[in-house]
Amino acid sequence: MSINLLALIGAMLTIATPLVWAGIGELITERSGVLNLSIEGTMYLGAFIGFLAAARSGSPWVGLLAAVVSGVVAGALMAFFVVTLGLNQHVSGLGLTLLLIAICEFTFRLLYAGDRPTLDDKFTVLFRGTEVLAQHWLTYVGFLVLAPVTWWVLRSTGLGMRLHAVGESFEAADVAGISVTATRYVALMVGSALMAIGGAFLTLAVLGSFTLDIVSGRGWVCIALVIFARWRVWPAVLGALIFAGMDALQLQLAITSAFDAVPGELMLALPYLAVIAALAIGGRTVRYPGSYLKAYRRA
User: Fold this and answer.
1) How many Cα atoms sit within 13 Å of 288 on the Cβ side?
2) Cα distances (Å, whole numbers) of residue 267 to 4, 11, 211, 257, 294
3) 62-119, pLDDT tens digit by residue?
4) What dotted CATH number matches 5-120+132-285?
5) I need a labelling partner for 168 at 20 to 30 A (CA). Which of 102, 134, 253, 282 fits?
6) What is the pTM assigned to this prediction?
7) Where along the chain do its domains lie?
């Protein structure tokens, strides 16, 4: 059995990129006490809207901007359900996911009628010729800018402190003069924009096309990673790398003759089994934020 380590690391970084963007987006929303189960649908929306805008305009940059706007809209809709109306977060998130996926699939089938369109221009990798460094710019921004900046904002700024206060005790935050409604709206809209970028990365950078199964459960994986990381940025990034590493490993093992007898379905399940194992080991003693899943009503 021969494993190309450099190729494995390069693939791991690419696979982890949408998980980092969407995972940090989910982390931000959950820090405010809101479980955003619409992440799968938001990533799907970002992938589709990004592709559609890029295909019609001829520019992946326009596609990325459109994906961000669609994410903000999805986040605002989720906020309207769970913050303004105070609806159940589980039902709202799952319902919104189903709605967004249904709208995207209906529109895609209506516009392309079974065709598999591709982009004439997509984001290309930087530093070609090196297996590890040949990554898209969104990968570099995700690991080298988004993660450290989010860590710093949540840890060392007034905005991060307000977000933490709302997530831990919105009653105390309200008494301190912090707008719980505004904080949760901003968290959901910013977080959903990052989720949409994670989805758009798949169409605008990796594939250059859109398929109906393009997200493939990555949103649910991000939710698990955030809980595994206990709402901390760097453990969430580490969790994304572990999942991506297992996914990249199974891709290499699947084309290795020594594993010909192993069912392909089992190989595909390998990274998801790793996530389940991590949650089973580390998720039992998790302390959830004090305002987690609670609707806020000002007295």
Assistant:
1) 11
2) 18, 16, 22, 14, 39
3) 999 999 999 999 999 999 999 999 999 999 999 999 999 999 999 999 998 877 888 8
4) 1.10.3470.10
5) 282
6) 0.93
7) 5-120+132-285
